[in-house]
Amino acid sequence: MPDWKKEIRERLERLRFGSTREAEIVEELAQYLEDCYEELLAGGMTKENALRKTLDQLDESDLLARELKKIERPVSDEPVVLGARRINLWSDLLRDLRFGMRMLLKGKGFTIVAVLSLALGIGANTALFSVADAVLLRTLPVSEPERLVLFEWQAGLTFRTSGMSGTSITSNPPDTRGLSLFRYEVFEKMRQTRAAAPESPLSDFFAFAPIQEVNAVVGDQAEIIKGQVVSGGYYAGLSVQPVFGHLITDEDDKRGAAPVVVLSHQFWQERFGADPAVIGQQLKLNKESFTIIGVTPPTFTGTLQVGYYPAATVPIACEPLLLGERSRLGTANKPGSWWLNLMGRLKPGATYVQARDSLNGAFQTVSLEVMPPPLKANQPAQLEPKDYPRLVAQSGSRGMLDRRRAYAPTIYGLFIVVALVLLIACANVANLLLARAAMRSAEISVRLAVGAGRWRLVRQLLTESVLLAVLGGAVGVLFAFWGKSALVALTDKVTGILPSDVDLSMNWRVLAFTLAVSLLTGVLFGLAPAWRATSQDLATSLKQSRRTTGAMSRLGKGLIVAQVALSLLLLVGAGLFIRTLYNLQRVNLGFNQENLLLFKLQPQQDGYEDERLLQFYQQLFARLDDRPGVRAATFGRIPLIAKDICCWGDSFLLPGENEMTAAQHVTYRQTARENYFATMEIPLLRGRGFTAQDDQRAPRIAIVNQTFAREFFPDEDALGKRVTFIYGKREVEIEIVGVVADTKYEEQREEFKPLLYTPWQQEGGEIGEMYFALRTAGEPTALAATVRQVVRELDSNLPVTEVITQTARVQATLGEERLSARFLSFFGALALLLAAIGLSGVLAYSVAQRTNEIGIRMALGAQATNVLRLIVWQGMRLVLLGLCVGALIGYGLKRLLASQYFAEDAWQRRMAEQLYGVTGTDPLTLFVIATVLTLVALGACWLPARKAAQVDPLEALRYE
Amino acid sequence: MLDRDLKRGSTEMLIMAMVEDRPRHGYEIGKLIEQRSQGVLQFHIASLYPLLARLEKRGLIKGRWVEKPGERRRRFYTLTAAGRKILAEQRRTWKDFFAALDLVAGINPA
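The joint structure predicted for all components is written out below.
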C-alpha cells in the first residue's frame, strides 16, 4: 500500500496550516485516495495502473492547495500549546496576544479595574515626564546643541565685582563663590583673544542678557514685553536662520550703528499679524525707534532661562539707548556691572576643558584689572593667587540652567509621588492577577500536565500582563493630556511653580517613556504571579479540589502590606502639606490684605522723569482716590508678599560708623506715599508718620519697623537716630522719625526682617515704577476696568500691568505649597482607593476559597459575628502591619532627608524644607491619617466579611 | 460571474443533498454524485475537498471523525440545521429557474 500521506504532504507542502488542522486534512485526503485506489483494484486494474490513476487526481494539487488556503486561515486558533516545540516565535507571540486578549475580554470587570488603575499611574507619570522633558531635558532647537559651551567662573571670596554677578549652577569648593555673569569689558577681551587665535577650540563666542521689561508701542497699543540684548555673533554662533529679513550681526553691534531689533516669531504673529512687510518698519522700545530687521524661527525661543522667551532682541550696543542711566555697560560715574551670559561653540572634536583653557588667561587678566578698589579696611587691595577668578566651562546645550534647577525639587518631588502611585497600582494589579491565577490553576495544571513548558506558560501569562499594561499605557496617554492641562492649571502664573509657557507637546521621547514604563510595569506586576501560577506541584494540584487550595498567598499579603505602607506615606505627606498650607494662610502678615487691588505702572519707561514723574503720580492718585468704590488709594515701590518680583535691600551705616571699618548692615527698603501706613492698615507705634511736606526740600527722614529698631538699636530709642546710605560717592543721612509695626515683606514663611520706609518724594530721581494699592469698598477686581480707564485718560501709551488683588497675590505666593497639598491629596486618595480595592478584592477571593471552611465553622456553631471577626481580622492584620511598615519607612525618610547625605541645596533638602509650622513626624497628622486609613480599610474588609457571614452552612458544605 | 456562481451554487447544492439523509464521507459523496448523474458529474479530490471545507466553514455541513472497529477512522459529513434551510432555498430557486427555462426555451428537466 502506498504511503498516501507522504504523497499528499509532498504536494501540499506550502500550506502551513496549524499542525492539528493540517494533520486532519492530510488524513482525510489520504482516506479518499485509499478508497479510490481500492475501488480501482477491485474493478480489476493492476496495482501500477491503479496507483497512477489515483495519484493523477493530485495533479491538480496546486488548485487544491490554493482553494484550501483560501478557506483555512494560515494560523489556526487552536488552544495554546500542548508542549509541542515550535520554531515560529512570531506566530507564538501573535497567538499569545490573541489568547491574552480573549482572556481579558472574558474578565471584563477585572480588566477595567486593572487598566484604569494602571492608566492613572502611567498617565500621571507621562504627564509629569512631559513637564520634566520640557523643563529639564530638552536641548536648544539649534543645530548641534551639544557643541555649545556655557561659561561661568569661580573666585575666592575676596574677589570683588561691581554688582550683579548671577548665580552659578556648579557646586563650589569651600571659600569660593561661583558666578555666571560677566562684565562687558571682560567679554570683549575674551572675544578678541579668541578671534586672534586661529587655533582656538571655539568656532564662535558670543554674549547675551535679558532686559526684563521693555515698553513696546505697536500701533497705539503699549505693552511691557520681555527683551534681550545679544552680541553680534549670537545668531551666527547658534546658527539660527531668520524666517524673514536678517538677524543681528557684528556690524549692528558697533557703537553708533543704527538701532535695530529682531522679533521673536510669536511676537511677530501676535502683534504684527504675521505681516512680512514689518521688515524695515520702526518699533518703539522705551520711547526709542528701532528698525525691525528680521524674525526668528518659531521653534527658537532664545538661550535664556526656561520660560523667559524674549519678544524683541537688540544688539548690546543699543543697551544704553534702552536703559539710559541704568545701563549696565557702565557710565562715567558708575562702573559697568557683571551682567552678560557667555556662550561659545566648540569646533568639532574640541572639549570644554580646551575651551576653558584657551580663554582663562584673558579672563583672569581683565577681571583683575576691572576689580574695584577695596571698600572696607579688612579687604586686601591685592588678591592672593588662590583667590583669582577662574573660568568654568560646561555644556550649553540646554541654555541657562539655574532656573531649571530651581524647578527640579518640585518636579522630582512630584515624580516620587506619581511613581509611588504607579507602584501601588502595580501591586494592585499583581494581586488581582494572583487571585486570577489561582482561579485559573486548573487550566494551568492541565496545560502543564499535557506537556507545556513552564517558560512557555510564563511567557503566555506575561504577554497577558504586558498587554494589560500597554492598554493601561494607551489610556494613560489620554489621561496625560488632561493631566498636563491640570498641572499647568495648578501652576500659578505669578509665582511660576512650574514655568508657564513651556512647550508641553507630546514628542517621541515622551511616548517612548510611556511605552517603556508600560512594558516595565507589565513585567513588574506580571512576573511574580506568572511564576507562582506555574510553579504548582502538578500531582497535587490536579488532585486537589478548589476547597483545599490555600487562602491568601504570602506574596499577596506582602503586596497588601506594601500598598498600605505606600498609601500611608502619601497621605501623611498630603496631611503635612495641608497643615503647612493652613498654617501659612493663617500667618499674621502685619497688614490688612482684604479688599486691596494692586497694579503696577512704569511711567519712567515712557519718558517721565523727575518733576513730571512726581506730577504724574500725584494726578493719578487724585483721580483714583476720588473714584466711587475706592476707600483709599496709595502707592509704594515694592509689592508686599510677592516672592520673586519684590525685594529691595540696601546696606547702611549706623551713627558713628565709618565705611572702611564697619561691618555691613542690611535692611529691606520701601518708599511710599504718606498715606501708605493708614491705607495698608499698618499701625504706627511711635513717632510720626510721613506728610505731604516731606518732599525733596525737607530734611530726609525715614520710618522703620519694630524689627529694625530692635535689631539695630537694641538698648536705646531708634527715634531721632541717623543712618547713612551710600550711593556711589554720595552719602545720604536719614533721620528715623517713626516706628511702625512689623509686616511680612517677601513671603509668609520668613521671619520679620528689618525694613526702612522713606517718603516717596524724597527718593527723587531714584523712584521709577510704583505699585498702586486701592482699598476698595467692595470686590476689588470690579475696579480693574476703572483703573485702566483712568490711566488711559492720563496717558494712553502707558501700560497697566500686574493687576491683581492682594489676597490673590498672597495665595499665589503659596502656589508651591498648594500644588504639593493638592497633588499629594489627590494621589494619596487615589492610592488609598487602589489599596482598598486591592484589599477588598483579595479578601473576597479568600472568602470564596474558604466558603467550605466557613460553612463547617458555622455548622459547628460559629456565629455570624465570629465569622465577621475572622475575616475582618484577616485583612486588618495586614493593614496594621502596613501602617507600621509605612511609619518606619517614613521615619527613615525623614532621617535621610535631615542627614548630611544630601548637599545643603540639593533638591531633596529643599523639598523637606517646604513644611511650615509642622514637623515631619507631627503626631496629630499621623494620628488623623492612620485613623482615616484604618476606617477605610475596615470598610474594605467589611464588604467581603459580610458576605462570608451570610454564608448558608448547608450551601457551603455542598459548595465545590 | 453568474456562470461561476451558478456552478458553485449547483455543486454545493449537490453535496448538501448527498448528506441530507445520512452522514457520508468525502469519497462516498463523490462516488454517489457520479453514480446518480450516470457519470456526467465527476468530482476528484482537488474539486471536492475545497468545497467540503468551505461548506463546513460556513456551517452548512458538519464533519465528524467516526471510528469503527477494525477500520481506520473516517470523516463523516452531515447537514446542519442552517444547511437544511439553505438547501431548501436553493432547491426552490433551481426549480423556479428550470421552470423559467422551460417556459422560455422549452426544456423540461424532469
